[in-house]
Amino acid sequence: MSNRTFALVAFAVALAIAAGCQFIPNEYFFSAAYTVLLYVVLATAWNILGGYTGYVNFGSAAFFAIGAYTTVALYYAFKAPLLITVPAGMAVAGLAGLGLGYLTLRLRGVFFAIASLALAVVLYICVVNWDFVGGARGAYVLQPEETPFGLPRFIHLLFAVKVLMAAAALVVARAIETSTLGRGLAAIRDDEAAAEAAGVPTLRLKIISAGVSGALMGMAGTTFPYYLSYIEPSSAFSLSYAVNSIAMPLIGGTMTWVGPLIGAVLLGSVQQLVQVTISSAWNLLIVGVLLVAFVIIAPNGLVGLWHRLFSKR
């Protein structure tokens, strides 16, 4: 299937899901599905740099928060709607990704991971001391009284937007995987020194990868203030976003675009179920246990396990 056909199918399915789910009477479904779809976008975005390129990024929460606080800033400045805040958040987070890549992607291994984590700490301190977006006390972003398209509640619109975001992230990931850029990133992941010796422009490809990954993570965060109607630094820079965005691709499989989707749907659904039946405090423990189990049993994730079992047959 060509990338154009895949994009048409993905968006058609997304629109069908967004339209069909509006008839579900259970309001909690939309809240839980929104969270799972958010993790689909985050996991897919992380995989572009962490999976395709092999550079582990611990700063996922930073890019997510950039998108969220771009929405807050535009809301307080202009009362900007989602139609403006989503592309603006993507642009700002993408530029941050390009900047991070240009400054740190000459580092390798654990040194880049530490640098990406430092970015999250620096941005957290900046947001805490930025009074315009609420600072440490947080900020309110009120949902519109009238929901467009005749939807009964604003959460229904946020769900539909997040479905389209997930489809867009998957389309971008698959397009990269099957392109010359994807093959260059795979060469960097396998052996960066050999790829550079073979003429692959490693630094340029890594910077592009960081920019695209950051833009998609920022896109995931743009709707977050409207979802909660209140945002504070500790919620936007939550450890769960950084941990889940790494664990979900590793559980699903980092070598292909479908791995993060499988991992996010599986792990995100389990977390939502545990949150309702037991407690949300168990979520990170579940992530840790599953991650250790998959590293031992299926180091290449569920997709790798599937290929290993059925390729022999």
Quick synopsis:
The chain contains 15 helices and two strands. It has about 325 residues and is mainly α. The longest helix has 24 residues.
Q: Would you kindly provide a written description of the structure presented here, covering whatever features stand out?
A:
This protein has 313 residues and is an all-alpha fold. Helices cover 74% and strands 1% of the residues. The chain contains 15 helices and 2 strands. The protein has a two-stranded antiparallel ribbon with strand order 1-2.
DSSP helix fraction: over 70%
Q: For the record, give the distance between the C-alpha atoms at the N and C termini, rounded to a whole number.
A: 24 Å
User: Strand arrangement, largest sheet?
Assistant: 1-2
Strand content: under 5%
Unreliable stretches (pLDDT < 50, length at least 5) are none
What is the overall silhouette? globular
Helical stretch count? Answer: 15
User: Major β-sheet, in short?
Assistant: 2 strands, antiparallel
- How many strands? 2
The overall pLDDT, averaged over residues, is: 87
Cα-atom radius of gyration: 19 Å
What's the structural blueprint in terms of helices and strands?
Elements: H1 3-20, H2 27-50, H3 60-78, H4 82-104, H5 110-128, E1 139-140, H6 154-177, H7 180-190, H8 192-197, H9 202-221, H10 224-228, E2 230-231, H11 233-236, H12 239-252, H13 258-277, H14 283-297, H15 301-311
Antiparallel strand pairs: 1-2
Helix pairs in contact: 1-6, 2-6, 2-9, 2-12, 2-13, 3-4, 3-5, 3-9, 4-9, 7-9, 12-13, 12-14, 12-15
